[in-house]
Design brief:
23 strands, about 35% helix, seven-stranded mixed sheet, single chain, five-stranded mixed sheet
């Protein structure tokens, strides 16, 4: 934490928007430098034009690579595309539209030239492909760096399943884009004034919400909701939801400012639209007693933050546990065999709740893409990440989105309050008491590591962990593959009866991340964290 975390941004904290946009068009990336190459992480290619990492040539090359990929895969339907509110998103949209038009791709863009949340684009792809047009499959591009600072841009490909592309696809796209950038003779084909087809993302998303959330229960209860888009793409969606369903819902901050001058600073003093961060949500927390429920979303609305009068900002793990218990108890049409999905760094409270519900737990590596197959075929009814991202299936058990949906999870909090008469935080307190988790403590810390050590950690196997105990308890499992699907973790997870830790290398910094939880409280958690670092360091040496 810095001294200024949670305080309002000052003029000297803001990015120079004119310089940012100018650099997008004028700076040519040097692909001989690793930091200026196209690199797809868990959520697409991200970077800043000011660093030579997100510029017009990057986007033209990535878009052409996507065109070549969809041609090779026989994807002949429309490509849905939408930007969030970051300053670099609209320039990237214009570049992509020109390249797509030059290659004859049928494109669906927002009918109101507005912002498009990630879940609305995933919903659009799935809606098209569901409505009997599978032979003419659609895919999409989301232009967003999610909750990253205002200086960043992001570009993500969603194939016909509607969710994030798998690593095989993104690796191919990144490699092809870099080949184009390395070719000195390559000149992007483009159309100066493309004319994409109009698609009303907002209206079609909002009209389908009644199929997945009990909006009538919310309306009838009169629960007072304050929704803060945090300057993001959900701003007009919340207003339309309130209007269409007659909800007592106020958009508490309808301002869209690509510099995010109204934000409070995050833990490290940066402007970051993270609805799971108390410093970033300080202005929302200040109004916690003005509503029965307050919610926040990040710039592309794939994440959620839940604020209640009695507890303030909920821990994302706690809210996931509440959602799972409530949904599997209030969705009678869901298949009796449908499983609970969670990432392996999410709270073990979820494990206990799934067991109490008699539901299979599908534990996967970090990344929402791992939930996609289960959400599509209904074998997984809910998939959630510890980083405040989740989605679930419709009331009839059919797929809703295969990307995270922060709007949906915020509305679910209102349904839970309306139906049970309890805020989600009160609901969690009761669950925690029932499952022996009242004193549970969870945290993530970073430990220093060289690039070589990070590479070794990513390849580490459970057999490399030689310790027999962790914080005074026998070790019960040493994992390097996720139990739910056998996919590599990219690190290790170690468990005991009352605690666990997972270690994974950072993709951007010379550190590795240690996620840990103890059901025996904060003091025991600190011991788990200390021993976890020693165990991992020993394995790396």
């Amino acid at each position: 934490m810095t001294d200024r975390s949670g305080t309002p941004a000052r003029p000297d904290d803001l990015v120079d928007l004119d310089a940012l946009i100018d650099a997008y068009y004028t700076r040519v990336p040097d692909v001989a430098r690793p930091e200026q190459r196209v690199v797809f992480g868990t959520s697409g290619h991200r970077g800043s034009s000011l660093d030579g990492a997100f510029n017009e040539k990057h986007i033209a090359a990535i878009t052409q690579a996507i065109v070549e990929h969809r041609t090779a895969e026989g994807i002949t339907g429309p490509l849905f595309i939408g930007p969030d509110t970051h300053a670099l998103s609209k320039p990237a949209l214009r570049t992509a539209l020109g390249v797509l038009a030059a290659h004859g791709v049928r494109v669906m863009a927002d009918a109101h030239d507005g912002f498009v949340p990630t879940p609305a684009l995933s919903h659009a792809i799935l809606r098209w492909n569901r409505d009997g047009q599978q032979a003419d499959r659609a895919d999409g591009i989301v232009i967003t760096p999610s909750h990253n600072p205002p200086r960043d841009g992001g570009f993500k490909y969603n194939p016909p399943h509607g969710g994030p592309a798998d690593s095989t696809t993104t690796s191919w796209i990144a490699q092809r884009a870099n080949e184009l950038l390395e070719d000195a003779s390559w000149v992007p084909r483009t159309v100066e004034n493309p004319s994409p087809e109009a698609y009303d993302f907002c209206e079609r998303y909002v009209e389908d919400l009644a199929d997945i959330v009990d909006v009538e229960a919310i309306r009838a209860s009169g629960v007072r909701i304050g929704a803060d888009p945090l300057g993001g793409a959900s701003v007009h969606y919340w207003a339309r939801i309130a209007e269409k369903y007659g909800l007592d819902l106020t958009v508490v901050n309808p301002v869209v400012d690509p510099a995010w001058s109204f934000m409070t600073l995050d833990w490290d003093g940066k402007i970051r639209m993270d609805p799971s961060s108390a410093p970033a949500m300080a202005s929302v927390l200040a109004r916690r007693h003005d509503y029965d429920l307050l919610t926040g979303n990040d710039a592309d609305a794939d994440r959620h933050g839940i604020v209640t009068p009695d507890a303030g900002l909920m821990n994302p793990n706690h809210y996931l546990a509440v959602c799972i218990h409530y949904l599997f108890s209030h969705r009678p049409q869901w298949s009796a065999s449908a499983a609970v999905g969670k990432t392996l760094v999410s709270s073990a409270v979820i494990d206990r709740i799934a067991a109490s519900l008699g539901r299979e737990l599908v534990e996967v590596p970090v990344g929402f893409k791992w939930f996609v197959p289960g959400l599509v075929d209904g074998s997984v009814a809910f998939g959630g990440e510890e980083s405040a991202g989740a989605s679930f299936v419709r009331k009839d058990g059919s797929v809703w989105t295969t990307d995270k949906d922060g709007i949906l999870l915020a509305l679910l909090a209102a349904e839970i309050t309306a139906v049970t008469g309890k805020t989600p935080s009160v609901y969690y307190a009761e669950l925690a008491a029932e499952h022996g988790a009242s004193g549970a403590a969870y945290a993530r810390i970073d430990a220093k590591a060289t690039k070589e050590q990070k590479a070794r950690l990513a390849r580490l196997t459970g057999d490399a962990i030689t310790a027999d105990t962790l914080a005074g308890e026998p070790i019960t499992a040493r994992l390097s593959e996720a139990p739910g699907n056998g996919a590599a973790i990219g690190g290790v997870k170690v468990t005991t009866e009352n605690a666990w830790f997972a270690a994974r290398p950072s993709g951007t910094e010379d550190v590795y991340k240690i996620y840990a939880e103890s059901f025996r409280g904060a003091e025991h958690l600190a011991q788990v964290q200390s021993e976890a670092q020693a165990i991992v360091d020993a394995a790396l040496s």
